[in-house]
Amino acid sequence: MSTADTLSLLDGLVAQARRAGADAADAVAVDNVSLSVGVRLGQLERMERSEGADIGLRVLIGKRQAMVSSSDRSPDALGELVDRAVAMARAVPEDPFAGLADPSELAREFLDLQACDPTEPSAEALLEMVKAAEDSARAVPGVTNSEGAEAGWGRSAVAFVGSNGFAFGYAATSGSLSAAVLAGDAAQGMERDYDYTQAVFMADLRTPEDVGHQAGRRAVRRLGARKVKTCQVPVVLDPRVSRGLVGSLAGAINGAGVARGTSFLKDKMGQRLFAPGTRIVDDPHRLRGLRSRPCDGEGVATRRLNVVEDGVLTTWLMDCRSARQLGLKSTGHASRGTASPPSPSASNFYMEAGAVTVAEMIGDIHDGFYITELFGQGVNGVTGDYSRGAAGFWIEAGEVVYPVSEVTVAGNLKDMFLNLTPASDLEFRYGVDCPTVRIDGMTVAGR
Question: Which long-range contacts does 372-377 make (Cβ < 8 Å, 24+ apart)?
Fold first, then answer.
């Protein structure tokens, strides 16, 4: 079904809901197609293709709101959808903050963000990629086994229509490639590591040979890991784990959590969170960004925001509901599916690069810990307490000297943010991105 046809279908559904008694309504349709391939030890283990089409309807009667969804778009099924939604909205409690976006907030211009790759890869092309990645990983000396390699591609077409006058649809794609291998043996110990790449356009992925080689190299480097004594030292986080700190910030400034009072940053608007000079950006308009979007899930206009400017927190990430609850305006961060109402989420969220190189950052550390992997979910969003299992490499006299495993790093995110220094190696790889960072004075718990 074309975008125009889908928008026409949704417009009819919204009009039907209004005739059935809804004061306001909006509808969303999501059409997905995905393809994935996996191999292990050179043998095909999985090849899957899936397609799905869902439609969701939200209706409001006064301040009562209900949402229902269906994968059946036949006229009879849509009629039942409307009847269920209206009946539910009449029965649920009132929500004083529910409602569609005000027409003045709606997006009127839509940028071409190059969010959709027009070329769909074949299963054969993905199979060649995963075989090349695994072969490259297994060719690294010291690699003894493989957990396999996987490649995937997906396309989502999203369309929205609201009784507030909004109507728009767009499509986005994403491709990925990963490999994971083991090094060592039972006698010397075994270690596992991985690498992966992800992009909107398949042509922007790193080469399979590079992904595989990096996965193998990382696994071999971890052989002979030690468990260090408990201490307080500077900690350096590799970009593939430092991005988790930025993700924790995004979660803590989510307007829904702030409005509920369940965020450790609920009273920090306008206050310093990071060192002077630190900037953290949410940019929904980055070309070919993994989380780019021309508007948010309520049709509200999106824009680049400096969420942290010169170390100071400047805003929450809000949808319409959380903004009303906080007495503010939506920042255009609503996201939604077909089965649930909108809620805030970040787009392309990243910390800008700092001025020092990674070598300079490590160079003056007498004893420290370079972290390449974190385990567990030990982040308390209410208090900011942070405690996670970690692995990586020990630093002595400014040099990385030996691998470390079976330790825990602990602190509080408020203190960690204030004592954080970013390096100059920012790359856009994940949608939530961060350069290598250094945090002084963290507790490393070992033997």
Answer: 372/218, 372/238, 372/240, 372/241, 373/193, 373/241, 374/241, 374/244, 374/409
**Tokens, residue 443:** 């507790």
- 293, 298, 304, 306: CA torsion to nearest 10: -130
Same domain, 194 and 297: no
Instruction: Name 198's bridge partners.
Output: 176
Report CA-CA distances (Å) from 305 to 90, 271, 290, 420: 38, 17, 17, 21
> How many structural domains does the chain have?
2
Side-chain-side CA neighbours of 165 within 13 Å: the count stands at 9
Within 10 A of 308 (CB to CB), how many other CB atoms are there? 24
- Which two three-digit tokens encode residue 326? 């906080």
Cα 218 from Cα 211, distance rounded (Å): 11
Average the pLDDT over 272-297 and give the result.
97
Domain termination residue (choose one: 188, 219, 250)? 219
pLDDT for residue 1:
74
Instruction: For residues 364-368, give the mean pLDDT.
Output: 95
Q: How far apart are CA 7 and CA 161, in angstroms?
A: 7
d(Cα 97, Cα 332) in Å, to the nearest integer? 16
Average pLDDT, the chain: 96
Q: What is the dihedral of CA 235, 236, 238, 243, to 10 degrees?
A: 70
Q: What angle do CA 340, 344, 346 make, to 5 degrees?
A: 125
Q: Does the structure show a pLDDT above 90 at 359?
A: yes
Q: Give the length of the chain.
A: 447
Q: What is the mean pLDDT of residues 416-428?
A: 97
Domain that holds residue 147: 3-219
Q: Is it the case that residue 353 has pLDDT exceeding 90?
A: yes
Residue with tokens 């690498």: 195
Which two three-digit tokens encode residue 80? Answer: 């039942």
N-to-C CA span, the chain: 61
Give yes or no: residues 132 and 30 share one domain: yes
Nearest to 437 by CA among 349, 313, 347, 352: 352
Q: Are residues 259 and 390 in the same domain?
A: yes
| Stated pTM of the model | 0.94
Question: How many Å apart are CA 249 and CA 177, to the nearest integer?
Answer: 27
Among the listed residues 446, 243, 254, the one whose alpha carbon sits nearest the alpha carbon of residue 335: 254
Closest listed residue to residue 152, CA positions, set 181, 174, 119, 179: 174
Q: Which of 219, 236, 269 is the last residue of a domain?
A: 219
Across 215-344, where does the E strand assignment appear?
A: 231-237, 280-282, 305-309, 312-313, 334-335, 343-344
